[in-house]
Amino acid sequence: MQRVEYDMTNLSANTQAILMLVSPLIAGGSTERKLLLTHREYTNLVKTLQQIDSQPADLIDREKISDILNTLEKHQFDQERLSRLLGRGMQLGLALEHWQQRSIQVISRADDMYPQRLKKTLQYLAPALLYVCGDIALLQKGGLAVVGSRHVDADLLEYTRNVGEIAASADCTIVSGGAKGIDQAAMQGATAAGGRVIGVIANNLETAVMRNRSDLLQGRLLLCSPFDPAVRFEVWRAMDRNKLIYALSDIALVVESDVEKGGTWQGAVEQIQKLKVVPVYTRTSGPDSRGLAALRRLGAHSWPEFDDIEDLRRFIHDIRKRDKNPDLPLFSQQTTPAIDSSGIVVDSAYTEASIKSPEQPNTLTIGESATSPESYGPPTPLPVSQEESRLAPRQEQSWGDQLFAHVEEIILQLLDELGPLKLEEIATYLKTTKGHRGQTAQWLKRMLDAGKIEKLPKSRYQGTESNQMSFSRPLTESDTSSIAPVTKQ
Questions:
Q1: CATH 3.40.50.450 region(s) of the chain?
Q2: Stated pTM of the model
Q3: Using an 8 Å Cβ cutoff, are 207 and 229 in contact?
Q4: Residue 52: φ, ψ to 5°
Q5: pLDDT at 463
Q6: Which regions of the chain are under pLDDT 50?
């Protein structure tokens, strides 16, 4: 793992400006949450800069900034807000020094190192920034995305590890999200067989780097995230990074999924029905799965279940050939936009089509409110078709049961990512008011009775299975001694 040498001269001016516009720069100090540009706000800013023959770097050019800010104000952008963001130079310097010590590199959409496959497939949905530790060249190579539920039985974990091993033997990179369960099993199987792995992390990239130093040093693992390396867990971030897992791969395998809920389901449905970046396959051997059957009804394919390494190698090769030939049926027929050296789309017709939608009109300006400060935002749930609703067998649930199922998933993810928490801490994450803490207590009791969580001394709760963000081996004492505790913000 090569140490990253940062200074303000070898970081591109575009990336410096983008960092100050959209990144919280947590390591450099605190930034007011609502101050940062959202992905949509940043996209609108980039469009306007392109129209006036400028780029983000011009916003930190002393000779140009005054005129550009005045021009942007005429386009309804908040000049004071932009000035406050661009005045965070000291905070940026401290953050860069902090990341350098942890061998974390940051690249922006304007950099040559930014993976072209993200620009090509996600276009304006590609994150403005990527925080990376490992061999950046891996981001360009594609591979097999393996995704699935967190809570599965031992047989499915063993199946998934075997998929990772076969992929490694076929010289195919595994791409996954690093979450407990299926994700980690696929990554562990690949690294154990000497294969390559890309982990797309939704939070606490710093912690993941420290816990996986061995594989990072050996060049077998790359960890990346579209979010600040110290950012805490939030459900929307875990769901939002799903599109990156698919976009960095050539083909995707869903090993297990719930029906109509959870990040695995939402990510797969988004891919099948909306983004259509890669073909989505589902496991066909082993126990039946309502979730996988529902995905197949929506358009997912049945996984051939390869035992022979050469068969898998040929299969991946054929998929890549289809990707180069848009006349073949597995992929969507989207046009690739022209992108200039600063990462700005220069095909105006494409730009308008790519940003406007009935749900998200292209009218938001920087002065308007937004739901999230990051380069991405909380995802809009994808509706299931009426046909799928009719076909999918399901048990009738009361509104209370449906609400509990959703809350239970969030609580389990919180405990997975943050470790044991007290009732008050869980209630705070759920944004439950003090007068309604009793409802949180009832949910926790129900989960205790179902064996989903257990109660520890000092009134703390944890999931019944431990979660270690390690993709090849258990943590050692040397790992944990050098990891700063995660702040529960």
A1: 134-324
A2: 0.72
A3: no
A4: -100, 20
A5: 81
A6: 7-9, 325-339, 341-342, 344-396, 466-468, 473-489
May I ask the CATH architecture of the domain 399-463? Orthogonal Bundle (1.10)
Using alpha carbons, select from 243, 205, 59, 42 the residue that is nearest to residue 128: 42
* Token pair in block for residue 466: 């431990």
Strands 251-254 and 280-282 turn out to be: parallel
Handedness of CA 214, 217, 219, 224 (dihedral sign): positive
Spelled out in words, what is the top-level CATH class assigned to the domain 134-324?
alpha beta
Residues 6 or more apart whose CB falls under 8 angstroms from that of 185 comprise 156, 157, 158, 160, 161, 164
* CA distance readout (Å), 251 to 130, 167, 318: 22, 12, 11
| Residue given tokens 């749900």 in the structure block | 359
Residue 239 near residue 267, CB atoms below 8 Å? yes
CB atoms near residue 460 (< 10 Å): 16
How big is the chain by its Cα radius of gyration, in Å?
22
Are the beta carbons of 355 and 362 closer than 8 angstroms? yes
Token couple for 184: 């980690």
Residue 23, SS3?
A: coil
Count of beta carbons in the 10 Å neighbourhood of residue 410: 15
Domain with CATH 1.10.10.10 in the chain: 399-463
Instruction: Name 23's Cβ contacts closer than 8 Å, sequence gap at least 6.
Output: 36, 95, 129, 228, 375
